[in-house]
Amino acid sequence: MNPAFAIPAFGPVLPEIILAAGVLVMILFGAIRGERSAGIMSILAMGLLAVALVAVLMLPGTHTETMSGSFVIDGFAKFMKVLTLIASIGGLILSMDYMRREGIFRFEYPILIVLSTIGMLMVASANDLIALYLGIELLSLSSYVIAAFDRDNVRSTEAGLKYFVLGALSSGMLLYGASLVYGFTGSVQFPGIAAAVSGGQAGNGVIFGLVFVAAGIAFKISAVPFHMWTPDVYEGSPTPVTAFFAAAPKMAGMAMATRVFIDAFPGITGQWQQIIVFISIASMALGSFAAIGQRNIKRLMAYSSIGNVGYALIGLATGTAEGIQGVAVYMAIYLAMTLGSFACILSLRRRNVMFENVEDLSGIARTHPVIAFCLAMMMFSLAGIPPLAGFFAKFAVFNAAIQANLVTLAVIGVVTSVVGAYYYLRIVKVMYFDEPAERYDAMPFGVKLVLGLTSVFVVLFGLVPGPLNSAAGAAARSLF
Length: 480
Prior knowledge:
By secondary structure, this protein is mainly alpha-helical. Helices cover about 75% and strands about 0% of the residues. The two termini are about 35 Å apart.
């Protein structure tokens, strides 16, 4: 083959190549320097992710396939990869001070974050079932270790073990479903599967396989009824790891779900739409009601993430370009709200002891007014109160559902959103009306930076929604 054509052929995979090559260098450097390299490794990892982000932005927005059609880059993949990389960078920034203070600042952590990010980027561009599974496994295996990273902590070890056992089960279900789809369509590539089921001519074997694939995907995005791992893993993992789980894998998971259902099964939308509608309603309902009695704020955020996945799935259930645009907008805004919320949670440290309960926020409006204001804005936004960004996120998916004649689904979404507002507003009440406790330690610079950027985005998004809506619209249209 002419070498002049080698670089263009692998151009779409350049961000993943950059991260993979960087990980090899990081492993060698860490092996030589040992634990002394932890700080340098975190900075190097953020630099690698930033370079990969630039490489993603430079990729063409047109539909381009490589690796014999297994890997695709288009506007949607670019959009979701940008969100994923931002989430990974934010998670690393939030983790540096925490890991150092807790005595678990090891050089392996940023390596695992970068490895899991490579898996997420692969998932967003997967154009066949094999590439999809490889990306999921790279993401999952790294995540299991990250969850149990505080190996001297029983809760962290338990979280990693639960995540591993249930994750292995879900991977098996997804692989079984993929094998059924391949067996009954004769193809693992999404265009080939789409051709085999075009015109709605899908046999029971394909539908059966699709159900198992949907179950595996639902686990990865922690959607009901495959959410059981989420509260325990979120509570037991180190707080920055919880922030990472709540942000980055959610971006990749929604990209994966959209890619599979829209690209591989466009001819049988009516069949998979029923699955997505059920998962969406169940996730919204459980996320709204189960969080009401939670006292640990990390468990509360776990149920909040389950509910938010349900809202995002409303857009996917429509099967239209408007719905996918709503998904893209929702995930971008959810990313900002999640990172901002966890930045506030990470500020609850007093005399080098972390606090995690809702009651620990008592009266911080008087002792830490800026943190209280920012967290209140995040809670109002998560509740969908205008004119904050969360209102526009929910409006985008509800509007798409109404246009697709899924009015009942939109109404259920509005009702569960009202129910969910209770526990968000309870946090605001605790901060502003309860008696204050002792002041917390000063917030680290990195946490301040993440909180400041996300707060500005959430509060001011309503003034300039155009750029994000335009980017999300272009991303959605690239799938159709």
